[in-house]
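Q: I'm teaching a short session on how sequence maps to structure, and I want students to see two examples side by side rather than one. Could you give me a first protein with its sequence written out and its structure tokens following it? Keep the formatting plain so it prints cleanly on a handout.
A: Of course. Example one:
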Amino acid sequence: MNYIGVDCHISSLDFAVVNEKGTTTKRQRVNTGVKELIGFVKSVPKPRKVIIEEGELANWLLETCTGYGEKLIVTDPKKNRWIGRAGTKNDAVDAEKLAQLARGGYIKEIHHPIGGRRRFRELVLSYHDTVKSQTRIKNKLKAKFRENGIRCMGKTVYCAPYRKEWKQRLPKDKVVHIIIEGLWRQLDQVEEVRKELLGQIRKQSRGYSEIKRFKKIPGIGTVNAATVSAIVEDPHRFANKKKLWMYAGFGLAERASGEKVYSRSLTHNYNRLLKNALKQATEAAISARDNQFRRQYLRLTIEKGILYHRAKLT
């Protein structure tokens, strides 16, 4: 097996090839491009694997190599500490060490969807980024009113029909009015983009049967169902249920030595967006009308006296 380590940049790709004996057989730097990438990979004898670290170019490199029938592995940079903490560090050295780590089996592969699944995930992530931007603008808007000694409660400050009334409360200062009106315009633009993205999510969700099944579960709506589908994609890519729960942030990580468990706590290494979607679904389910999740939550908290946050986790 030949292991091809690649240090990726938008302008150049640094290659290093390591064989099964651990000998570096080839090094080369090429310009970033499909022709240059595939040309070098094809020049390495089979069997071969291409190894890169997670980054902006990961999706493009993965789809390019997959399209040409080449095996590419995206690895977790946090696990590749030998590279990050090296005394001597440059692109050529990083590529060689990445290949050596792959040869020794010390890399952790990161899953990346390709094709339509990749675009659907990007659509969902873009929606959540837009919601974050919307929240940031709303917070800045209320903060600006408070800075001028105006109590700002509720949601009417965001709504167009009430803006004239809110403007009358502001001091007669042109600069303040310009800032507030600018924030309102930003809010309107972001809301328009959010609605457009949500419409696309609803449209594309029809092509994924699992989303229809998710939406039948109490507490899960269109956005959360699409989020779970886009991030998990295929549950069978996880070795077992525990791995999936760890990825979702609900698994318990144990530290043990000498047959003694020293600590057991929720994992700190998980997908934040997936955990947030599941937490929102849980909150909605236990607050909704009678359903199996609400009944279980009440049974755990009332009958068994379990703390509310542990009951939610269960």
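Q: Perfect. Now a second example for contrast.
A: Example two:
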Amino acid sequence: ELVFDRVHYSYPLSRAVEEKICASYELVPWPEDETPQGTHELFFCESNQAAQQRALRVLHSDSLTYESRSDGSYQRKMQSFSSGLVKRMYCNRMLTEGFDDPRITRVYIGKETKSEILNYQMVGRALRFLPNKRAQIYCIDRPCALRVEAALRRAG
């Protein structure tokens, strides 16, 4: 992989954590109680329908789907999430470009994604740096945890 006149630049995740560019993190076991533990939690689901159903069952949560873009509710939902009124946002795919909130401390990966890049993008939502922050990454099962671990290893 050559870029910039055949010079390869890399910045491993471990160095970014050490230099406080990214938050430290840990993979933790899936909780028995799926009630939000704080604010600014993201939960990635298998489908938009699953995201909507989960959000209906959990207080102080909402779902973000592509329909949110077309029906005009996206901005309102994101403002509620950003303010902490909505503690957990359920979604199926990555949030749109430009979404970057360093207060996200917990990411729940409740979907199968074979792509290391997509796994890393989901985890990356919690890696934005804040002083004294330790991101928590929840994987729904062992295969998911192995995929996320592989993505983090590849990131260095």
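Q: What should students look for in example two?
A: Point them to this: The chain is about 35% helix and 15% strand. Also worth mentioning: The longest strand covers residues 134-139.
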